[in-house]
Amino acid sequence: MFTKIAASLGILLVLQTSSVQRVLTDPKFQAAEDFVAQDHDRFVREIIQITEIDAPPFKEARRAKAFMEMLRQSGLTNVEIDAEGNVIGTRKGSGTGPTIAIAAHLDTVFPEGTNVKVRREGTKLYAPGVGDDSRALAVLLEMIRAMDAAKIQTAGDILFIGNVGEEGPGDLRGMKYLFQKGPYKDKIKMFISLDPFGWGNDITVGGVGSKRFKVTFRGPGGHSFGSFGLVSPAYALGNAISKLSKIQVPQRPRTTYNVGVIGGGTSVNSIPFESWMEVDIRSETKEELNKVVETFTRMMHEAVDEENRARSTSQGRIEVDVKLIGDRPFGEVSQSSPIVQTASAVVRAFGLGPVYGMSSTDANIPMSMGIPAITLESGGTGSRNHTLDEWIDVEKTASVRGIQIALGTLLSLAGVI
Amino acid sequence: MFTKIAASLGILLVLQTSSVQRVLTDPKFQAAEDFVAQDHDRFVREIIQITEIDAPPFKEARRAKAFMEMLRQSGLTNVEIDAEGNVIGTRKGSGTGPTIAIAAHLDTVFPEGTNVKVRREGTKLYAPGVGDDSRALAVLLEMIRAMDAAKIQTAGDILFIGNVGEEGPGDLRGMKYLFQKGPYKDKIKMFISLDPFGWGNDITVGGVGSKRFKVTFRGPGGHSFGSFGLVSPAYALGNAISKLSKIQVPQRPRTTYNVGVIGGGTSVNSIPFESWMEVDIRSETKEELNKVVETFTRMMHEAVDEENRARSTSQGRIEVDVKLIGDRPFGEVSQSSPIVQTASAVVRAFGLGPVYGMSSTDANIPMSMGIPAITLESGGTGSRNHTLDEWIDVEKTASVRGIQIALGTLLSLAGVI
Asked: Cβ of A92: how many Cβ atoms within 10 Å?
């Protein structure tokens, strides 16, 4: 999710505008644009093909393998799955420009067993994960085909990446490995994440920070009838959720919290010995994030104390473990930086107004390390991502334009020979 | 769990006392008693053997198969697993007495994957399910061996049963099938359940009624950051649990409630579209049970209304489904009935005082149908059943005495030729 921020004024760099104009008016780029429009049906088929291979967090392997085959068939070199599970292939440049990576994430938020069959109604495709981020994976393939069809050679190498670990418990593990450990560490000079669907004029220039927790309440347990009156971790959890739901957060800087997954207990007729929840807290500023984390942590302990006072602790007390399971760094890239100015100029060239904003995406990692990075939309429209009702519209005008904007940005940054 | 009730006065029937005395003073019974004492080490080994085959609700098949083999090796006839999963074997009588069934339940409250390895410290055995109800299954085997060793023939047939579905979601399915559908329907004239461990002087003469519910809150779901501010089933559930935990119930008639298992949600960074809990409500009287069920049901709907008022319903409202998943009938057997008086006389003959009480066991079903039925303890001592810390003490005096009391009661009811 993207939240708008104010644009800094008067920092449009002429340099970027002219290099963008050079690329966009190049007959080769126009040939690539035409190819994207003609090839649209195939692109849609590939979205469906990718979506229908499920890819829960930490279980992206099947989709990764399929995507690796697709990248290989598209003619990239060095197509491999790295040690973390990211699929990476290279489209070699002439060696005279910076290496740029462009990525879409393989994983979805949905657990194993979710029905990922795509239902099509007119130009709308319905399926969990179809827009977040299957469409973007298909955009990568389309870009490669368009560049090949138009015989475009770039100055810098381009890495096309289908990465793991963007969603849920993945905690950006794909990006952390790519930028901090793997063979491409220190080699990537600019980064674009495509995530999720959307017209193509939203440019993420700041990475929202988040902290994620698994909160586990533990107690002595017991027989539901025989031990009635003993403290219960389920009641501590219920009370904790109820408290959490009342936290007031500011709209600006946008700050949010969520109880995602809950669990615990062994049977209906046993007092649980463990009840737990996973909590996501995000903010556009470190200060607000820390404030909410502090309030949340205090509430968890209050809930424990209240339960230990409300019922008998004769067989043991309730205790709580608040464990940090995810920590996405804050990050930003200056609006005046070449990567943002380039993307903005491309968006304008397509008749749209660039909108700057913040979100929490794979780009958080390079941003936090000072590597120029942005997140762009993958084109088209859609809604309800992270729900079973997720859908995208592949109506051709907005769908094709989004791909063209992303391709124009990528080529303007890589430099066309 | 067993709660004491007052004994009716002056109803000791001379008839039962004399028939009990006749059995207990029979040299054959004394030979059986001696056998039980001598064979105790083997009995303990069998408790361990049974405990270490896990038997979650609806997954009793492995333990059932092993128990069937054990019953077959003990020489019973017609040893079979019925269509519901109960293991049943017959020890034929002379045909001049009523058919009696004695049962212990195969299932435990623990889910698949629970470590059921028994840890022994002195005379204590620690393991989930060791006393509830593995010990009682081993008692059945021990009784058969003792009767054979002492060459005891009974007037009535005795059915030895290891049954399914006593715990958790099983909802007494084993007993419901046995008494209402299966081949022994209408044939069993008296019933004894052994459940769980304990000295042997607690006699269950009333079946506590219970109702069990699965409560599912559903909502539109969404992205944790992008859709922040939408209603969440997790908050409705937390609030519902918090309300439920404050219900005041009477101590007499004993009335209880419990939140057992909870679940729902797809990922930490998604607002769940579904959050649920399983709730157990019990009482010694129908009136109190219905009162708590009514309060509970009202609270579930209040929690929904409050959540729909607290946050945005622009993408959909929270709704709740309160589904009855278990309904154990009330039942009782008169303290003046021959079955209760016989058990009482046996308990007294062993120097203990019978204590009458209510609990929720397999005997609820025959009791609710007017078939004379009691639940007895299987001997020994123990604690913490329904927790991972469950243990029993197989110290010989109390362990052997419990088996002897159960055997004495069974034989006094069946009649020794």
From this structure: 13
Distance CA A11, CA A353 (A): 15
**What is the model's pTM?**
0.74
Q: Are A365 and A179 in contact (CB under 8 A)?
A: yes
* Residue A386, helix vs strand vs coil: coil
Which pLDDT tens digit goes with each residue over A321-369?
A: 999 999 888 888 999 999 999 999 999 999 999 999 988 899 999 999 9
Higher-scoring residue by pLDDT: A170, A86: A86
**Residue A258: strand pairing partners:** A280
Check CB contact of B360 with chain A, cutoff 8 Å: yes
Q: Which pLDDT tens digit goes with each residue over B384-394?
A: 999 999 999 99
User: For residue B401, what are the CA distances in angstroms to A143, B132, B351?
Assistant: 82, 18, 10
Q: Would you say residue A9 has pLDDT above 60?
A: no
Q: At a CB cut-off of 8 Å and minimum separation 6, what does A246 contact?
A: none
Contacts of A204 (CB under 8 A, 6+ apart): A2, A193, A357, A358, A359, A361, A363, A374, A375, A376
For residue A169, name the pLDDT band (cuts at 50, 70, 90).
confident
**CA distances, A409 to each of A316, A330, B77, B247 (Å):** 61, 24, 82, 62
Pairing of strands A87-91, A355-359: unpaired
Supply the pLDDT for residue A19. Answer: 86
Number of H helices, E strands in chain B: 11, 20
A359 close to B (CB below 8 A): yes
Contacts of A254 by beta carbon, 8 Å cutoff, 6+ apart: A3, A208, A282, A283, A284, A358, B225, B228
How far apart CA A295 and CA A314 sit, in angstroms, is 30
Who's near B202: CB < 8 A, 6+ residues apart? B2, B355, B357, B376, B377
Provide the pLDDT for residue A1.
64
The CB density around residue A298, as the number of other CB atoms within 10 Å, is 11
DSSP A312: B
How large is the angle between the packed helices B135-149 and B27-38, nearest 10 degrees? 130
Amino acid at A142: E
Written as one letter, the residue type at A40 is H
- Cα separation of A106 and A192, whole Å? 15
Tokens of B365: 């079903």
Interface of B with A in 79-118 (CB under 8 A): 109-111, 114
Query: Is the pLDDT confidence value at B359 over 90?
Result: no
User: Is A268 within 8 Å of B280 (Cβ atoms)?
Assistant: yes
Hey, are the CB atoms on A109 and B271 less than 8 Å from each other? no
Q: Residues 245..304 of B with a Cβ closer than 8 Å to A: which?
A: 245, 254, 256-273, 275, 277-280, 282
Contact A275, B275 (CB under 8 A): no
pLDDT of residue B4: 75
